Amino acid sequence: MVDSYREMELIHIHLLEDASGIEVIKRLLNRGLIVEFNDPDDKRTKRLKISAEGKGILDNLSPKMSEVYAKMLADLSVKGKMQLASYLKALNDCHLEH
Question: Which of 81, 89, 14, 24 lies closest to 54 in space, CA to CA?
């Protein structure tokens, strides 16, 4: 697992427009949810990673998000869940190609 990213890597991973992604990153930095540091391989570049506070928030949200996902899937048949998984995999594969 990668523990830090360059700004533009994060923006592209999350399929954001550059300006919108930069604004989101600024907000996360201002709230202390991510931290910025010098790239050891390229002194001109900054890297970003989740802060301890940001990780704590994610850890608290994970069980709640699992509950939301379970409720979303509750009424789907096994066939429907398999189709959804197939669609999500196709979307993910498409994202990884770009």
Answer: 24
